[in-house]
Amino acid sequence: SSLRSLLKGAYVKMIVKSAVRVAKGVLQRIEFNSRTLGGTNTIFAAYLPDSTAHKKLPVVYWLSGLTCTDENFSQKAGAFQAACDNQVVLVMPDTSPRGEAVPDEEPKTYDFGLGAGFYLNATTEKYKTHYNMYDFVVKELPDFVESNLPVTDRRAISGHSMGGHGALTIALKNPERYTSVSAFAPICNPMAVPWGIKAFTHYLGSDKEAWKQYDATELIKSYKGNDLHILCDCGTADNFLVGDVNQLQPLAFMEAAMAAKIPYTFRMQAGYDHSYYFMSSFIAEHLAHHALFLHQ
After folding, report:
1. pTM of the model
2. I need a surface site. Which of 78, 211, 279, 288 has the fewest CB within 10 A?
3. Rounded CA gap, 273 and 277, in Å?
4. Lowest-pLDDT choice from 1-5, 60-64, 121-125, 282-286
5. How far from 37 is each of 72, 125, 274, CA to CA, in Å?
6. List 238, 286, 289, 290, catalytic entry
7. Across all residues in the chain, what is the average pLDDT?
8. Which of 165, 274, 289, 290 is catalytic?
9. How far is CA 18 from CA 3, 29, 294, in A?
10. Is the pLDDT at 207 greater than 70, yes or no?
């Protein structure tokens, strides 16, 4: 049993980098050494409502989008009072491994490498040691959180853009681990758009069959799990939807879900863009949605 605890993160050193009071709780930034990210140090944020002083709460995991760290959501989403109202802990990981040893492409671009891990396990020689954000989010991070913080093992998952892609694919691949999933402006069909094609080529190689396991539109076609209470929001003024290239492809996901008879709610919100102004407008609804199922 001691070995099991060790593997589950109970004895991994936890460093609280900062703690700040916000709403009716405390936001901590926590660092630990990640074996799935190639032995690099990673920082995640955790928001703990005051009630965690006397009881464990379920967790909503938030996956951020391209270029983000653990801090963007904390600083811009305005989610903390809603987390208190709905009695959930929020956990916000980084979007990629970081550190001097972590490889990237030259010249550096915003949509690949650091800040752009795409929530998959890389298989190409250059990237497979460090870029395992899928295993990190699905296994290592929750093991660490559940060993070290006042939380239960009930989880929901949400995210934005690349993180919306991560949330949908991770939930569809692990329905037994999550009570519900939601997303803001998710990259629904990455195999079919420039962002995904670039990332998958570098991380996974040229075999497009291997790409399908990280594409929500492909995954939902054969989904056989429990109802994940899928909730997605996308703004009608999102420049990645209505700009030069539709990077998000919500219709492809909706059509695949309907054909597979998988229930979902996908709302097109009039006038909103791709930014945190949009997310801050609806994050309370998303947290209330997750709380419905987390507290059952």
Report:
1. 0.96
2. 288
3. 8
4. 1-5
5. 21, 14, 29
6. 238
7. 96
8. 274
9. 30, 5, 28
10. yes
